[in-house]
Amino acid sequence: MKLLLRSDVNGVGKKGDVVEVADGFGRNYLLPKGFAVLATRGGEAQAASMRRSRDQRDAADRSAASDIAAKLVPAVIAVSARAKAEGDLFGSVSVNEVVAAVAAQTGIELDRHSIHIDEAIKTVGTHSVSARLHPEVQFQITVEVSPA
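The chain above was modelled as a monomer; its predicted structure follows.
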């Protein structure tokens, strides 16, 4: 059964794709839930147009993410936090603090969901934070924590 997907379906395809699925899967799941419609010639042409625009948008997003990564990889982001004399912090540095520091020092606004702190930053010093701005663009940001 040939169907045009109206939304992303894991293991099947993305919105706008024309896919071939088993008759029962299409008839009993995809069609009743509104995830797909029967593929027609006009629908396939529309899907091809949607796919082209999605690919162009994805390429532009990937390019913008690569440009941001090129600016942030060599930069060292300075964050100040209250610390004990031994160098341990009172609490930890959060993702929101890293995002705010990046915005203040570089002018680049990042989404807090694109930043991931692997291990909690609880000491003064240099730490590495991972960022994923696009599924194909992942990089490390260097964060320098100093006592306030």
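The CA atoms of residues 9 and 18 lie 12 Å apart.
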